[in-house]
Amino acid sequence: MTNNQLIIVNGATRGLGFELVKKIINSNHYDLLCIVRNTNNLSKLEIYRDDIHLIEFDYKQPSKIIDVETQLNQLSSDYNKVYFINNLSIIEPIGKLGNIDSNKIIENISINFSSNLLVINLFLKIFSMKSTCYLLNISSGIANNPVPGLGLYGMSKNFIDYITRVIEVENKKTKVASFHPGGMKTDMQGLLQKQLTDNEDLKEFNYEKILNQRLFTPSEIASVIHAEFLQENSGWSNLISNVYDYYEG
Questions:
Q1: How many CB atoms lie within 10 A of CB 58?
Q2: Which residues pair with 195 in a beta bridge?
Q3: Alpha-carbon dihedral of residues 73, 79, 80, 86, nearest 10 degrees?
Q4: CA distance 20 to 225
């Protein structure tokens, strides 16, 4: 790693995270670190493995955060400016509360709540006193629009937006923002549309608006994030914003 600016991407192996990695590497202005669940199963990210630093963290086991802390501490004095793009989330389980398997709820909480908060906390703990820091949480408009069957996912995004607001109040030295990217053409979106169409538990609800929403490509959203946040344009002036605040096309 040779630059004096570091970007950390949490959740980078596919979809939006992978497209962000491509944008960042092609810019050549930053060093790049990716936090991933399993370094032996990197999917498309494998082709860039020699150009990035990788930290493995099994998000289903939040207690393993101590290993992440050790590795991040080794980088803490090397950079004048550090960006953290927090792209971690899962959408499952999909279904009505009361009909969801308890183990699936525990898994969702471990990833979307516990691991998310632990990594955010580490970033602030390790970097905010030594470097100029920027934290971008990838959230969703569902945080403010309850959707039947997506209670856990929606709660996790509401949680992310709330944490963003808390950091703004607590840590004036860190630039923080929460970004709602809209619907995207990803594996997660495919899973969502299949569940909302086929899940017998959800047949009573009307999902026409979600099923017919405009879908952006992950590359389009990555371009918006790169231009508006990583190049320090208008993105950081809005604590919580969405793709339509920046995207024209």
A1: 15
A2: none
A3: -70
A4: 8
- Burial track 212-249 (b if 16+ CB lie within 10 A, e otherwise): eeeebebebbbbbbbbbbbeeeebeeeebbbbeebbee
CATH match of 5-184+216-242 with 3.40.50.720: yes
Mapped onto helix, strand or coil, the DSSP state of residue 222 is helix
Mean pLDDT of 192-210: 91
- Are 223 and 23 contacting, i.e. CB atoms less than 8 angstroms apart? yes
Please state whether the predicted TM-score (pTM) of the whole model is above 0.85.
yes
Residues 10-18: what's their mean pLDDT? Answer: 88
**How many residues are listed for the chain in this entry?**
249
pLDDT over 70 (residue 43): no
Residue 2: pLDDT over 70: no
Q: What is the DSSP string of 51-116?
A: GSEEEE--TT-GGGHHHHHHHHHTTTTS-SEEEEEE--------S-TTSS-HHHHHHHIIIIIIIH
The answer to whether the peptide bond before residue 146 is cis (omega within 30 degrees of 0) is no
pLDDT for the residue numbered 152: 95
Centroid of chain to Cα 193: 20
Token readout for 213 is 């929403």
Report which residue type is found at 10: N
